[in-house]
Amino acid sequence: MTTPNFSEMLTRLPAHDELESTAILIARRWKDARSTAERLSVLADWNRERIEFETEKSIAMVRYQIDTSNTENREAQSHFDLLTPEVEVQYLEFLKDVLSSADRPELERELGSHVFSLWERFVESCDPAVVDAKNE
Fold it and tell me: What is the pLDDT of residues 15-32, one digit of tens each?
């Protein structure tokens, strides 16, 4: 496998509605899950979605930093700047459910306690009022 050149990497600009419907679907799957294995599957899907969004956002940010005068770069950066606070609220709400799960001990055994500590710090450090202020 060859590493692609940065100039060949495409940046997809996810739509707000797409991100919201994915978050709703993942949250519903989490609530409907009846076993630790099902919850692990939901967590894996959530993590893939999170990584995809963060990667696309990072590529857009780097492109913008390379050339701030480029209109496409500026628009992509602005797009992610608008979406990120809402996505973080979605992460926050999902992680609250994960952290309060009855299967948490089993999930920690599978995923490790460190990831739960990181998620706890994220939840503790987020204040939806800050996100609302960013959107104004």
Answer: 999 999 999 999 999 999
The interaxial angle of helices 128-135 and 71-99, nearest 10 deg, is 160
Half-sphere exposure of 23 (CA within 13 A, CB side): 20
**HEC sequence for the chain:** CCCCCHHHCCCCCCCHHHHHHHHHHHHHHHHHCCCHHHHHHHHHHHHHHHHHHHHHHHHHHHHHHHCCCCHHHHHHHHHHHHHHHHHHHHHHHHHHHHHCCCCHHHHHHHHCHHHHHHHHHHHHHCCHHHHHHHHC
Mean pLDDT across the stretch 2-26? 86
pLDDT digits (tens, 9 = 90+) for 59-86: 999 999 999 999 999 999 999 999 998 9
Q: Which amino acid is at 23?
A: A
Sorted by sequence, the CB contacts under 8 Å of residue 11 that are 6+ apart come out as: 56, 59, 60, 63, 76
Apex 18 CA angle, 15 and 24, nearest 5: 140
